[in-house]
Amino acid sequence: MLSRTFPLLARFASVLGVALAFLVGCGRGTDELVIYSSRNEQLIKPMFDRYTAETGQAIRFVTDDAGPLIERLAAEGKNSPADVLITVDAGQLWQAAERGLLQPIESSIIAANIPEHLRDPQSRWFGLSVRARTIVYSTERVQPDELSTYEALADERWRGRLCLRTSKSVYNQSLVAMMIAAHGEERTEEIVRGWVANLATEPFANDTRLMEAIVAGQCDVGIVNTYYYGRLLREKPDLPIKLFWAHLGEKGVHVNVSGAGVTAAARHRAAAQKFIEWLTQPEAQAMFAGVNLEYPASPNVEPDPFVASWGTFEANLLNVAQAGELQATAVRLMDRAGFR
Amino acid sequence: MSAIAGELSGLRSHRAAQAKSFALLFVLCLPALVPLAAVLTAMLTPETEIWAHLARHVLPGVLGNTLVLVVGVSLATAVLGTGLAWLTATCDFPARRFFEWALLLPLAVPSYVLAFIAVGFLDYAGPLQSWLREVFGSSSWVPPIRSTGGVICVLTLSLYPYVYLLARSAFLTQGRRAQEAARTLGMSAFKAFWRVVLPLARPWIVAGTALVAMETLADFGAVSVFNYDTFTTAIYRAWFGMFSIDAALELAAVLLAFVLVVFVLERRSRAKLRFTTTRDVSHRAPRVELRGGRAFAAAAVAALIFALGFLLPLLQLAVWAITRARMDFDARYVGFLWHSLLLASSAALIIAAASLVVAYMERRHSSLALRTLVRGATMGYAIPGTVLAVGILVPIIGLNNLLQDLLARWFGDAAPSVLLQSTLLTVLLAYFARFLAVGFNPIESGLNRITPRIDEAAMSLGVGGVGLLRRVHAPLLRTSLVSAAILVFVDVMKEMPITLIARPFGWDTLAVRVFEMTSEGEWERAALPALVIVLVGLIPAALLTRRGEHVA
Question: Å from B457 to nearest chain A CA?
């Protein structure tokens, strides 16, 4: 029986093999820049298209969550076809750098365009757009002068009035990580426990649902990334909620970055560096941030007028690398504090 | 003396046959065993420090949640799926012909989509409660949707078709006749169902429920919409939040051990039972004609489930898709559709064929080693998708690196570059690892209906091996084969993590589109690709039920 089965399987396999051989990818031998991106296609492809149009540099890319992309990069090692890694959060870039998957880039252009606190102190990755996470409040039930810091939301006056997104969100993880950097673990745990005690309802799966709950009257204040606010506002211009520019620690709004680094295995190192440098220049900066209502990382570039209409803020100046360094600590802290 | 020698050599050749089939199966199942090994070997380097934290603060809650969810969804889908299957397969009531296939359609709606729509509609800020507050001033009596009950309801609505499909094929091949026989022995319709029809359909119901339980364990999308913490969310939290893939893999190993125990218990409980038919399966007994209130109730239940699990979500998707279509709909959709169809149908064919071989070999040469092998190979369905995707991708990348080094040694700088990890072959291998259970379960339970005496008769006529499989079993298994292929097809249409990590550059599918939108929370924009996934899922569902009725 086996003697009859094997040729059958072999035939099957060879047909399959031939059919698929046509689709086997090839990574080297071309000048194409290869990019692994966890910034999703509709937010990043316009940048690639523009760059290709301006410089003639061809780009190939694949999108996925940062977790699997980084594992893939690590497994591929020196054979990786990737030249650039793009993520939507500093923690993942920090982790990739920590695992030796990114290489340092000395560039005066990047150094001039991107402020120090938004890039790796060892120059292995660079923030390209700023994602501000701040307080949102009901204009019907809250006066802005009642608000001050993220920490103050643990105050008893907000009992039963606070809405939070789940602690599984990397944006909350980096916010708490930064609070640890500012206050230490013990004080931060107290604050997080205070938040949990103040919750009006179970944490939400995303920021949009959270804001809808405030609009509906389920709670009065929450913490969100500003571009989610922008998206909702664009749909419903008379939204009865507003952003309040909160302070973390000494001062400033908590910011995370969407950023990029050149991979350790990059075959087109110079081209990769050129591309990232291009992304830090004014025109590209406006586009990179504008497409998702984020803030440009470069202080010399104005945000989109719609974004600017929410007011200006001062960013917290702790280096965003700390978000990665302290992320695991933050996750454990939130586990202990019962922040789901 | 010579008799003993003959017996010995017979035994030896039997052993040899067993060993051969084990080897063959091992090779065939290798892609499914690799990620399993990756998960299990992580146990060798325990992350003790993280474990101490998890054991204290995470696992107690998560274990309870997971248990409640899996038991709740399994029970509910078993009852709902079996009940509806019995109604449509053995009874007659208004619109029965429509519901026969329509009740399968919720399968085409990805559970994360149903979850998102349900929460959006029923939560405090959703239209229902807002309306109630406007009219009655309060909606506080509405039970919260973001709760254990809410998750169980949504997963049940989305997953019951697995049980429905398999139970229905059991009833079609046996139910009506068994029921008829029981009735002639003086049993009431209810008693006949309970005492005769149901026990005879057990392997099918169990096979379907097992798929549901595994999918529930591995689910991440739907439970995250509810922010309901399970083992799977804890796995991702350890990986993405604490940057420890080792701890994530170890948690996955515990999950698998749990699944294995359930498997073994279930197997034992029916080890001695047989479920074969005694006569020609094409014989058909008349349906039970439901009248009056009963007929109305049957139609109403079917209509309710159909509306909640399919029609309303479809309408919501359609509304969103139409309002956003101008942002996204373009010629590229032809490509997305074609890619999805190609992957789903090749995976369906490959996995159904492989499942047939595996189930058949298990039947012919059953041994403990072989059964363990098959059990292991079908575990991939219970591993959270992204973990499984990385579990199979990393070894393939390892292989690719070896190959690349060899090429470099032979050709130096002129070496061509290979990239096995982003090819369709890898995508299909990983699908195989993930969905083997989905193909295998229906076929294995289908084989239960074929009495070993048919095999003996065929063998005595000189038909054995592949011939037996092709000429005798395959025709008898048509319903099961088609069920298997369809389930795999629909599952692959919805699959994300494997497609994302291993697809060739630029080879986007509909599910990849859904990911692009939802990864930054733009759920409404994801409606368009999700809608197309649902509509494409209609085609096989319609085909299948036609087929099923014909064959049976």
Answer: 17
Do the beta carbons of residue B447 and residue B357 sit within 8 Å? no
Q: Do A202 and B146 touch (CB under 8 A)?
A: yes
**Tens of pLDDT, residues B380-405:** 999 999 999 999 999 999 999 999 99
CA distance A62 to A119: 24
Residue bearing the bigger pLDDT, B289 or B440: B440
**Each residue's pLDDT tens digit, A264-314:** 999 999 999 999 999 999 999 999 999 999 999 999 999 999 999 999 999
Helices within B365-494 (DSSP H only): 368-377, 385-411, 424-447, 452-460, 465-467, 474-476, 478-494
Residue B163 has pLDDT above 80, yes or no: yes
Closest CA to B503 of B430, B391, B424: B424
Fold of B54-270+294-551: MetI-like fold (1.10.3720)
Which of B14, B390, B505 would you mutate first to test chain A, the one with the most A CBs within 10 A?
B505
Q: Is the ipTM of this complex over 0.85?
A: yes
Tokens of B460: 């005595």
Contacts of B388 in chain A (CB under 8 A): none
- Asked if B124 lies within 8 A of A216 by C-beta distance, the reply is yes
A162-163 and A221-225 as β-strands: parallel, antiparallel, unpaired? parallel
Check B119 against A208: CB less than 8 A apart.
no
From CA B439, how far away is CA B441, in angstroms rounded? 6
Burial A156-193 (b: 16+ CB within 10 A, else e): eebeebbbbbbbbbbbbbbbbbbbbbbbeeeebbebbb
| Identity of the amino acid at B13 | S
Query: Contact A20/B423, CB-based, under 8 Å?
Result: yes
- Closest-CA distance, A166 to chain B, in angstroms, reads 7
Q: Give the integer Cα–Cα distance in Å for B495 and B503.
A: 12
Cα B483 from Cα B476, distance rounded (Å): 13
Domain ranges of chain B: 54-270+294-551
**Closest in A17, A81, A213 to B125, CB measured:** A213
Q: How far is it, in rounded angstroms, from Cα B17 to Cα B368?
A: 14
Contact A257, A127 (CB under 8 A): yes
pLDDT tens, position by position, B231-254: 999 999 999 999 999 999 999 998
d(CA B273, CA B457): 22
Cα B448-B454-B459 angle, rounded to 5 deg? 125
CA distance B2 to B548: 52
Worst-scoring range by mean pLDDT, A324-333, B126-135, B162-171, B471-480? B471-480
Whole-angstrom distance, CA of residue B496 vs CA of residue B489: 14
The first and second tokens of residue B228, run together, are 């309901």
Per-residue tokens: A178? 């930064």
- Contact B138/A at CB under 8 A: no
Window 480-499 of B, Cβ < 8 Å to A: 497
Q: By percentage, how much of chain A surpasses pLDDT 70?
A: 91
Query: Beta strands of A139-249 (E only): which ranges?
Result: 162-163, 221-225, 241-244
Q: Among B427, B387, B415, which Cα is nearest to B507's? A: B427
Query: Do A26 and B419 count as a contact with CB atoms less than 8 A apart?
Result: yes
CA distance A261 to A123: 9
Residues of B in contact with A58 (CB under 8 A): none
A vs B, Cβ pairs < 8 A, gives 181
Instruction: Name all domains of chain A by residue range, CATH numbers in brackets.
Output: 33-130+255-304 (3.40.190.10), 131-254+325-337 (3.40.190.10)
pTM equals 0.93
- Token couple for B238: 């350890």
Cα dihedral: B357, B358, B363, B366 (round 10): 140
